[in-house]
Amino acid sequence: MKRMTRYWLRATALLAYCLLLWAAPVGAQADSLPVCPGGTVVETAPLPHGTAQKVTCPGTVREVYDHYRAAMQAAGYHLVVEAIEQERGGLAGTGANGGSISVTVSTADKGTSVVVDHTP
């Protein structure tokens, strides 16, 4: 059962990645999501059609996942992929203007690690 869940989560992450590659930079969606409360941006990197941001957050995977889920909805993204487990979770959404965003949440040594990939 655990193995099947791992494969499902990997397939979800692959789908989110494909959505990001497929999405064209059109219009203007929210440039970024608000960082989780008490979170720290560790790294920001440019992508061919957007940006990637790595954040470290206090709290459980569920708390951080819920924060980013609400932030995505508030920013106007339609959630197309949602997956949550005890140690990891993932979200992917598309904007009304064609932009896309994916959020990967996982446990880390010093809290919870988040990677946000955004294509405007």
Automatic annotation (TrEMBL):
Keyword annotations from UniProtKB, A to Z: Signal
Phylogenetic classification of the source organism: Bacteria, Pseudomonadati, Thermodesulfobacteriota, Desulfovibrionia, Desulfovibrionales
Stated name of the protein: Uncharacterized protein
Signal peptide: 1-30
